[in-house]
Amino acid sequence: DMAAVLSGPKQADEKDDVEDSPIAELIGMRQDKITKCGKCQTKTTTDNLLLLCNLVYPEHSTLKKKTSFGSVLCSSLCPEQVTPAWCEKCKKYQPTTQSRRLRSLPFTLSLNAGMDNPGDLAFWSTQMTLILEEHEGTGT
């Protein structure tokens, strides 16, 4: 839910110490990137400025399940994944959980819908079909 996504420590009207460009101020989103080592559980947090959000669609996009745009947006703004990354404490690459916590939203949200691969197209095609079937089923 969007309220949980926005429950980070900063509010949208707070300023960072770093001077941002006018473009960053207009479309920039502040995020905390949180990396947790799967072996030693060491957690590191870094501040990131995101200018564009790439939408991430559900894994099985052709299943006949209606997915709200808000759900897609939330999972895209605050993705979580497990990937190998360097751990300073272990001194080697380890499986790590990487997540992002949104700290502020921009005045203008810039989204990339993808649409450059069959999976993205299948997701939107399935969603449109489900909406049309729902609409036709109500008789309106």
What would you note in describing this structure?
The protein is α+β, with helices and mostly antiparallel strands. It contains four helices and six strands, in the order ααβββαβββα. The strands form two sheets. It has a four-stranded antiparallel sheet with strand order 2-1-5-4. A two-stranded parallel ribbon has the order 3-6. A hairpin with a 5-residue loop joins strand 1 and strand 2. The longest helix has 21 residues. It is globular and about 60 Å long. The relative contact order is 0.23.
Tally of individual helices? 4
Mean pLDDT: 84
First-last Cα distance: 29 Å
Task: Write down the Rg.
Answer: 18 Å
- Helix/strand/pairing class, anyone? alpha+beta
> What is the molecular shape?
globular
Strand order of the largest sheet: 2-1-5-4
Q: Can you write the helix and strand succession as a string? A: HHEEEHEEEH
In total, the number of strands is 6
Report the β-strand fraction as a percent range. 25-35%
Low-confidence stretches: 9-19
Main sheet properties: 4 strands, antiparallel
The helix content is 25-40%
